[in-house]
Sequence to fold (329 residues):
Amino acid sequence: MVNLKGRSFLKLLDFTPEEILYLVDLASQLKDNKKKGIPTTSMHAGKNVALIFEKTSTRTRCSFEVAAHDLGMGTTYLDPKASQIGKKESIVDTAKVLGSMFEGIEYRGFEQTIVEDLAKYSGVPVWNGLTNEFHPTQMLADVLTIREKLGRIKGINLTYMGDARYNMGNSLMVVCAKLGMNFTACTDKRYFPEKELVDTCLKIAEQTGASIRLTESVEEGTKDADVIYTDVWVSMGEPDEVWKERIDALLPYQVNAQAMANAKKECIFMHCLPAFHDLNTEVGREVYEKFGLSELEVTDEVFNGPQSVVFDEAENRMHTIKAVMAATL
Fold:
């Protein structure tokens, strides 16, 4: 019997395959309850959680707030301007204060050490809504989506295209290693994941039957893929020279019709969103004016095509985040 009560959810390296699948199963059950109108507000009625967002978000904030409400909890949202964390008050002091007032804390921001320290000193479960290094709640949503769409998890061939050095590339490699999926990072070698994490995942893969592969060849990387996954190439606020460098290096790894055609017929396209696939955003128009490109990491044809499951994936953020809170509080 899996018991996660009192545990923090900081990175999937901390969890066994059985514990990860338990959370995915719980999310599926909670999703079914919500679709059927079965209330779950009694699960954690009267509890309160703090949501710290040093980086703003649409999906993560909405997912935590709706999930907490569905579980009967109150939420306090702290945006980048509403908290003194790390500015006038240390992480340690903040953790102790919030831990005395709330039953749980979500953190979305920068270094993984911040969320680790919040968990160490708060005395309550802490959930990682995204750091520079890892994005574990997104992984649960992705696994749930893959299982819903393809009917299985183990043995799935997942190819990640783009910059694989940070939270998404890292986390997808970890979850694939943990759950026996075959992970391929398909990108310029300058954007491969860090060797230390690759080596860690290779050791895990030996126990689960997973495989880890790094390739610069789009043809090789997408062949027989069940899932092709990508993310934005550049974070907001980075200078133009970084945008140009990434675009020049990663344009060959854009997910387009040709890449999808090289994969399995039933291959699905995934993206954690937001995506730059058209000119209907301020950033999209800026990119077009500066670089002459109307699409970046994925073409609009693929993003809005029949193989895309990005909006089902986005919805599953809420159900899996609800599972994490329900299980750990």
User: Anything to note?
Assistant: Residues 17-35 form the longest helix (19 residues). The mean pLDDT is 96. The first strand starts at residue 48 and ends at 53.
